Amino acid sequence: MNFASDNIVGASGPVLEALVRANDRALPAYGGDEITARVERTFAQVFERDCAVFLVATGTAANALALASAVPPWGRALCHREAHVAEDECGAPEFYTHGGKLVGLPGAGAKISAASVSEYVANLPKNVKQMPAKALSISQATECGLVYDIEEIAALGEVCRAHELAFHLDGARFANAMASLGCTPAEMTWKQGVDIVSFGGTKNGCLMAEAIVVFDGRLAESLAYRRKRAGQLISKGRLIAAQFDGYFADGHWIANARHANHMAKLLADGLADVEGVRLAWLAQANEVFPILPRSVDRALQAAGILYHPWSDLSLPEGQRVGPDEVLVRLVTSFATREEEVQDVLRTARSAALRHAAE
């Protein structure tokens, strides 16, 4: 059983069916096809406004190119210190900004507060020796599985406007966060001041399909060229677009996210009831972060259950991982079955009971 990530499963049925249909005939290359045009219109409908859409194959490309459109080589992009853009993209944002700097801010649960952003920018020296802040990037959901609520995003949007920062949202798990909030894409983004979104499909049913969705036309100007220079203008671009065609059809993307979130809630609730197990953060999307006794951790691994250890840097104040404990991450997906969740819970309960009896 593999709970290592939501990108370890394949594509969902509707996405594969859309791919097969797109593969059945010759169409213009480099995004000049009717499927890409239709998907771009669909994005505008999903977000309830005109927007520029640039399809790419990876989330790293989406994030790096999005930030490059907003941050000059002499600028800073603010993010959480454990954000994916800072920790897991091998310097791609700095590379594609040609020298721009990522600055990591602290925050429990990998969330950044509006107050911390405002304080940081206000205290930056205003002279040519110091790189100015040019953008803010938040992860939705965060690296600790938490979801920024609408009010938090709005507050960050106000700070960005006050300090003339471009506001980027890394939405690798966009659908999971939106399903958790019960809001619309518009309510989670541009209505709260977000300028540009890395919109993820790969973790929620696509094979490899991401999109840079731009609401600020000034940021869109250079992206067509940046995408080409980065090798992300795919000649058979219709095969990326087709994935989104199947993804959006009949609300499939929301159904996938709701299922993944539901499986995570079942897993989180069940683990929280196991003796000696506690949750580091609430399971607000499709990731669960239990602090396990090492005996339970060993039993789960021995049963062939795959997951990752996790950083405790963003634990709430006063919370810590003990010497005989380990903090881990388990991720559910659109393909996770309830029987798999129950297998994890049975193994954890049995291990906890054995440990208590010793």
Task: Provide an overview of this structure.
- This protein has 358 residues and is of the alpha/beta class.
- It has two domains: 240 residues, 3-Layer(aba) Sandwich (Aspartate Aminotransferase, domain 2); 102 residues, Aspartate Aminotransferase, domain 1 (Alpha-Beta Complex).
- The protein contains 15 helices and twelve strands.
- Strands 1-7-6-5-4-2-3 form a seven-stranded mixed beta sheet, sandwiched between helices. Strands 8, 9, 10, 11 and 12 form a five-stranded antiparallel beta sheet that branches.
- Strand 4, helix 7 and strand 5 form a beta-alpha-beta unit.
- Helix 2 packs across helix 12, helix 8 crosses helix 13 and helix 13 runs parallel beside helix 15.
- The radius of gyration is 21 Å and the shape is globular.
- The two termini are 28 Å apart.
